[in-house]
Write a structure and sequence with these properties.
The N and C termini lie far apart (about 65 Å). The protein has helices spanning about 40-85, 90-110, 115-140, 150-160, 165-195, 205-220, 235, 240-245, 250-280, 285-290, and strands spanning about 1-5, 5, 10, 25-30, 35-40. The longest helix is centred in the N-terminal third of the chain and has 46 residues, at about 40-85. It is about 70% helix and about 5% strand. The chain contains ten helices and five strands; from the N terminus they run βββββαααααααααα.
Length: about 290
Amino acid sequence: VRVEGRTLEALLPVGGEGFGVGDRVVVYLEGERAYVTEPDRMPWLAALALLFALGAVGLGRGKGLRGLLGTLFGLLLLVYVVVPRIAAGGDPLLHAFLGSLGVLVLSVYFVHGLGRKTTAALGATLAAVLLVLLLGRFFAQAMGFTGLASEEALLLHQWGGVDLLGLYLAGLAVGALGALADVTVTQASVVQALAHADPQAPPWRLYRRAMEVGYDHLGSLAYAAGSLLLFPLLTRDPTPLRFLLNTEPFAAELVGMLLGSLGLVLAVPLSTLFAAFLLAGGKGEGGDHAHPH
């Protein structure tokens, strides 16, 4: 390998037969020895990020650009504010909820605008997030979760000073935010269109009509939070299924999937109900700039 103009003899990692001449790699130097650790993936990650940005802006135009910026700011908020506070021992429920609020304000108000429709969607999403967090803490404590369900968690545990269970609980909420916001904004938009089409409709009628679309959502909602790499073990591991599912890695994944799906199921009627009361009589037209079709 060539490192800073020098040619060095480096050892390949186990299973590293796929490396070829001209490949960019990451090299670990220890004294006079050099070790190839893995391919340099940053150019490909940058290319994929650029492709995503071009697709978001090119197809979504102004709203796509705002969505891109909202996603970026939300990610920075999570990485540099929420996660460090939880890892330092702060209340995971409080900081995960406040972090979710910050992310949602960026992703809902910044992208879709400030109005009754987006306020209904934001309120319903926060209510679903809060429920997921509360149920997550209850079931994690009841099942005796330690947070040591992955290699990354074991590494953080070795470093010390990190609330792994708190990070797990925060991940339950943050992992479902995108799907929750999408469902709630969609349902609020349905209510808004119905309210503008029939300004005399009372909230209960708007709720009933909008839930005809909501029931279609409920029939197809399934949230998968975790790694699919665990599930092939169900057929390959000789351990009886009852005991395999009882292990923390499997149980934690199942809890995440079930609570995420439950949050989505609750978000549909909540967003419909909030929007029905906020938008009844055709209100919200000036703030949301929506037109019925």
